[in-house]
Amino acid sequence: MTPEPPPSLEELEAQERRLVFRTFTHEDAWALGSLLVELAREREAPVAIDIHRAGQQLFHAALPGSTPDNDAWITRKRRVVERYGSASYLVGARFRAKGTTFEESSRLDPDTYAAHGGSFPVTVEGAGVIGAVTVSGLPQLQDHRLVVEALERFLRG
């Protein structure tokens, strides 16, 4: 079986335009985080899950098989979303599309920032990016897809 190709820049940018909240409350963070836990448990995914809003951690879960390294990855991926206002996977893909890598060309400390998939902006209509939902523990594209799937389900509500 051939692995599914990664999404194009256009697809990734379309995800960000589509996955926007009207509001985002503490209760929303709990419900979205709980949905991510449910999806990860169904797949026996060894992930850690984190939701931040305006610098405050609103949700965190570490499932069996996850490690403290996953929390470090979460922090580094979330910082990319906070700095660039885009999904960590999209930021990395933009660098790759230019024939380089984030690590080579961003001039940012790779111990502080990681443009690897798994952190997605929490964007609110009229307010912009106010936070991030992040997963770590799977290969980066799978982390990204898990977050996108949860956001799509949550926003369909």
From TrEMBL:
Q: Which organism is it from?
A: Streptomyces griseoviridis
- What InterPro entries does this protein's entry cite? PduO/GlcC-like, PduO/GlcC-like_sf, YBR137W-like
Stated family? Belongs to the UPF0303 family.
The protein's name: UPF0303 protein GCM10010238_00880
Q: Which domain of life is it from?
A: Bacteria
